[in-house]
Write the structure tokens for this entry.
Amino acid sequence: MSMTGKIGSFGGYEPLFTSTERRRFQRVHIDLFGRIVLPSKEERQCRTVDISPGGMNLMCTARPEIGDNIVAYIDALGRFTGQVVRRSPEGFSMTINASPERREMLADKLTWFANRIALNLADQRGHERIEPIQKFVPMRLGSGEELVVTIRDLSASGVSVEASYLPPVGERVSIGKAYVTVVRHFEGGFAANFLTPFPAKEIDQAARL
């Protein structure tokens, strides 16, 4: 099933999820900031990697135990409660405890976000992509670690690079002096959008990030 909707009934879009069961489990890659409250009442900052009406995957320095009850406050979406079901080096995944009505409301919000992202990407693909002369640039991760990556191509709105390490989708890193958000992975690299797009006239083969 396509991740994007079509122009139609919901706010100008067809629903992203076509049945109650699929609405519950369809995940949308989305980058939103928030905070969590641990069972100890300690609070930590977090960011979403993906969300469905039934659960969410969060990037966070906290390492709660599987089964822990978590309260999450996510920007633009609100407050959620749930249990930790999986842990990873970057964070953890949790269920979302919600009534059927609230799951439907969350599915509608995710539909809106997914279509907005899709329309932005479609618009960005309209920018001309060029292969720069200067291909090797440093990439700095949120941890401060720095790696060298190779630029495949770039445009006014984004860049495609080859890299030995692939930051998670939704991660914000710097490539050269430009800050970007990772939007997808491909074999041997990833594509990212500039947080602040460049004027198209500034992007040519001599461009340096």
Summary: DSSP finds two helices and 15 strands in the chain. The chain has a mean pLDDT of 80. Residues 69 and 102 are 19 Å apart (CA to CA).
